[in-house]
Specification:
Layout: E1 2-5, E2 9-12, H1 18-33, H2 37-54, E3 56-57, E4 68-70, H3 77-83
Parallel strand pairs: 1-4
Antiparallel strand pairs: 1-2, 2-3
C-alpha cells in the first residue's frame, strides 16, 4: 500500500503493518471525538512516526498513485476531522 503524508512524500507500507497503523488511527480518532487537542497532537505524531518508521520512502520523482493520504504533522484537529472517513484515516 502506498501512503502519502501531505507535504512529505510517499511511503510504501507492508500489509503486515496495517493492523498496528489501524490501532494508532483508532486512538487518533478517539482524541478527535473527545476534542482533546493535546491528545490529538500526540496521537497524530505517533501515527505519522509509525508510518515513517515501517514504510519504505519512495523517490521524490516517483509517480505512484497514493492509496491513502495522511495529514501533515502540523494539521489542526479540524483539518483532520474533515479528512476522516467512516473507518478513520486508514480503512481496514
Amino acid at each position: 500500500m502506498i501512503i502519502r503524508i501531505m507535504g512529505e512524500g510517499q511511503v510504501q507500507i507492508s500489509p503486515d503493518d496495517i493492523a498496528v497503523l489501524n490501532e494508532l488511527d483508532s486512538e487518533l480518532e478517539s482524541a478527535i471525538e473527545a476534542d482533546n487537542e493535546a491528545d490529538f497532537r500526540v496521537k497524530l505524531h505517533a501515527l505519522l512516526d509509525k508510518v515513517r518508521h515501517v514504510g519504505k520512502a519512495l523517490p521524490d520523482d516517483s509517480l505512484e498513485p497514493s492509496e491513502l493520504i495522511l495529514p501533515p504533522a502540523d494539521a489542526s484537529i479540524e483539518e483532520v476531522r474533515e479528512m476522516l472517513g467512516d473507518q478513520g484515516l486508514i480503512p481496514g
